[in-house]
Amino acid sequence: MALGTSRTKSTTEAILGLHPGIAPDDSRFAEGNLIITDLNLSGTTVTLFGESDPLDVALVDELGRRGCSTHSVTVPSGWLASSTHAIIRLDTPAGRSAFDGLINGAGASSRVVAVCEVPPDADSSARTSDECRRCGATHDVSLIWHPALQVTLSDVTAPMPPELVPPAHDLASTIADRLALRARSPRRPAFASQTFYPETGSTLR
Questions:
Q1: For the whole model, what pTM was predicted?
Q2: What is the pLDDT averaged over residues 57-75?
Q3: Helix crossing, 93-103 with 122-135: angle to 10°?
Q4: If 56 and its partner were Cys, which of 14, 50, 141, 200 is the partner (CB 3.0–4.6 Å)?
């Protein structure tokens, strides 16, 4: 199984198909209760609500290497009721439109990974988390926060250090890992929130 990383994997990581450094948060992977699970998404169609930027390109590539077909939606058109597995980029127009439709009850229960750049203020973060939590009452929702994907100036004296800018392929692999992990769990309403930390080796904690 291709995972899009040149780093050496441990035996457990190689068996589980995990991106190096990611500690699984699913109870099936608890110490002493390890169940070997294939995290390949072969045969799955994933709907990607985004904007055809480098992260979208990396996601399509990563999902393709895992055997997925990808349906990309880049214009605001709401939620597609046929979507059973989806990646929603909340900070894009198409993603926001899809998520609004999902919140309003469109479609049957789906597995969703919502992805969003960490907002500059706590209120926005809390509002997004609350929306995802409410959506998790009907769908299996995972929220992944990430830092900006390019070096930008928050002000003239505080540029983001380059080492804190995650390569798109690292974030894409992390997102695909999360979707694969949830795809192997029973489909039920759920919510989980995690943050991607590129400075610690692409880990979620």
A1: 0.74
A2: 94
A3: 50
A4: 50
Helices and strands in the chain: count of H runs, count of E runs: 5, 7
Span 75-106, pLDDT tens digits: 999 999 999 999 999 999 999 999 999 998 76
What amino acid occupies position 148? A
Q: Strand 140-146 relative to strand 111-117: parallel, antiparallel, unpaired?
A: parallel
Tokens of 19: 């991106």
- Cβ–Cβ under 8 Å, residues 131 and 104: no
CATH, domain 41-204, list 3.30.450, 3.40.960, 1.10.3470, 3.40.50: 3.40.50
For residues 79 and 65, what is the distance between their CA atoms, to the nearest angstrom? Answer: 25
**Which SS3 state, helix, strand or coil, does residue 77 take?**
coil
Q: For residues 39 and 3, is the Cβ–Cβ distance under 8 A? A: no
pLDDT digits (tens, 9 = 90+) for 15-64: 233 333 333 343 333 333 333 344 668 889 999 999 989 899 999 999 99
Q: 3-state DSSP call for residue 57?
A: helix
Q: Please count the CA atoms within 13 angstroms of the CA of 8 that sit on its side-chain side.
A: 1
Identify whether the C-beta of residue 87 lies closer than 8 Å to the C-beta of residue 152.
no
**DSSP codes, 96-138:** HHHHHHHHTT-SS--EEEEEEEPPSSHHHHHHHHHHHHHHTTT
